[in-house]
Design goal:
Elements lengths: L16 H13 L3 H26 L8 H11 L4 H6 L6 H21 L2 H14 L9 H15 L1 H6 L1 H24 L1 H11 L6 H13 L22 H16 L4 H18 L14 H22 L4 H27 L4 H4 L2 H13 L4 E5 L6 H10 L4 E4 L14 E6 L6 H8 L5 E6 L5 E8 L20
Parallel strand pairs: 1-2, 1-3
Antiparallel strand pairs: 3-5, 4-5
Helix pairs in contact: 1-2, 2-3, 2-5, 3-14, 5-6, 6-9, 7-13, 9-10, 12-13, 12-14, 14-15, 17-18
């Protein structure tokens, strides 16, 4: 079992499901960049049918007359958000959590409607699996608290008729989540470390939480995530076309709060925004990703309510309004694709996406395979470098050291010294002092032409001089 951990403690703690799925993909198709990106791309592609299913299940409770159209709009609306497009190409576990979350709620609504044990069982399975995806999954039970209150208040008879199915789903969910829960009981630091690192705390916490709340509420239309990894810095979630539809949907939910689906969507939205409200750097799109499906559903709801309102008042233009709604949606998808193209060309992604380390791995595997290579101040242990060397089947004798504090100089063989100059400015001068007459050449530049890495070549028979061994004549007095 030590070779198959239930929780990965590296990188502040990581749930295992996404990591194991990546391992399966690499076992099937071999280690490569394409293989790594295939999984999030597949997950992102599944957002559309999953949301279409959820829209189909929610439609009747939202008062939707044209269920098929609302289902299609729900699935396509995710394509009108840059948020979803970026995370469909981002090899992190957040997208898997979102997909399982959508499928969980869709199966749970189907279970409530049909009261079939197979759907209760599926919802329990998905609920248990969600805890193996991403930390915000721990908040999912809170989404159901208002629903439980509403069911006991207004739908008590239906609730009683579904107790067997609910207990079945709950039991399966507990069984599936139990191994991870046992691990956390035995290793409480693994459960709390990452939360404590990002949680807003300290003096002035009330004002910080208020600031985070305003920033999170404004991410839809004022200012979004500033991190180039997650967004075009500060770009809002919604473009000008989808913004009005989103607010139409939101107002409709608030106006029909006692409808189960309306209360559910509002509860889901609020709970899944908590991870970014309660942590630093709000609004952080990766922490709020659990709310992304709600944005898509509200856009679809806005489209449906707009077309229904106009069509009921002016039946003669109903078809034209529906056509306009489709044009708005596809135009927004086009705007989003243009935004994605601009984002993918952003110079900041050179650093955010480890482009320099990718180029370094290519150089090591293509030009220095079988040679002795030293990289400072980091590189030999960097996961991007290691995975790409594995994918390329290369085996340079690759070592790391920190040239800011020490040197590694082989005295009898040829070697190459690579310095990441923006992190290690002292190493090149230090190693040069040990290798008189050595030349330093540029190796990698960033997109702005700024030096990112340089290389120093040491021939096999080059004299190595140790300045520390030179005599230091000193005139002594009495």
């Amino acid at each position: 079992l030590s070779n198959w951990p239930i929780f990965f403690t590296g990188n502040f703690g990581r749930e295992p499901l996404f990591i194991y799925l990546l391992a399966v993909m690499q076992a099937l198709f071999g280690p490569s960049n394409l293989t790594l990106r295939l999984l999030p791309a597949l997950i992102g592609a599944l957002f559309t049918p999953a949301l279409a299913w959820l829209g189909w299940e929610l439609g009747p409770s939202l008062g939707i007359r044209n269920r098929e159209r609302f289902s299609l709009w729900s699935g396509l609306a995710i394509l009108a958000m840059l948020w979803g497009q970026i995370f469909s190409r981002y090899v992190i576990r957040a997208g898997l959590f979102t997909l399982i979350e959508i499928l969980l709620w869709a199966s749970l609504w189907r279970a409530w409607r049909s009261n079939a044990l197979r759907w209760w069982a599926l919802s329990g399975l998905l609920a248990g699996l969600s805890f193996y995806t991403y930390l915000p999954a721990r908040l999912l039970p809170l989404v159901l608290v208002p629903m439980l209150v509403l069911a006991l208040w207004r739908y008590r008879q239906q609730f009683r008729g579904r107790i067997t199915g609910m207990l079945l789903g709950l039991g399966i969910g507990i069984i599936v989540a139990a191994p991870l829960a046992v691990y956390f009981v035995r290793n409480p630091l693994s459960f709390s470390t990452r939360t404590e690192q990002v949680l807003v705390q300290g003096q002035g916490i009330a004002s910080l939480l208020w600031k985070n709340t305003l920033a999170t509420l404004g991410m839809a239309f004022i200012e979004g995530d500033a991190n180039i990894r997650n967004n075009i810095p500060a770009r809002p979630v919604l473009d000008w076309l989808m913004l009005s539809l989103f607010f139409i949907g939101l107002v409709n939910l608030i106006g029909h709060l006692l409808r189960p689906a309306a209360l559910f969507l509002l509860s889901w939205l609020v709970v899944m925004l908590l991870p970014t409200i309660l942590s630093d750097y709000a609004p952080a799109f990766h922490r709020a990703i659990g709310a992304m499906p709600v944005f898509a559903l509200l856009i679809a709801l806005g489209l449906e309510k707009m077309t229904s309102w106009v069509g009921n008042r002016w039946p003669s233009v109903r078809q034209w309004v529906v056509a306009l709604a489709w044009v708005m949606l596809f135009l927004s998808i086009f705007i989003t694709w243009r935004a994605f193209t601009a984002w993918s060309a952003s110079p900041g992604l050179f650093y955010a996406r480890d482009v320099g380390f990718q180029q370094l791995a290519d150089i090591l595997s293509e030009e220095m395979d079988g040679q002795r290579v030293y990289v400072s101040p980091r590189g030999s242990e960097h996961p991007t470098v290691r995975s790409l060397l594995l994918a390329n089947g290369a085996s340079p004798e690759h070592h790391g050291f920190d040239g800011r504090i020490c040197v590694r100089v082989p005295t009898d063989i040829a070697a190459n010294f690579v310095f990441l100059t923006q992190e290690d400015s002292r190493g090149p001068e230090l190693v040069s002092s040990y290798l008189p007459g050595s030349a330093i050449d540029p190796l990698i530049q960033d997109v702005d032409g700024k030096e990112w890495a340089i290389i120093l070549h040491k021939p096999a028979r080059r004299t190595v001089r140790f300045p520390e061994m030179d005599g230091q004549p000193v005139a002594l007095s009495d």
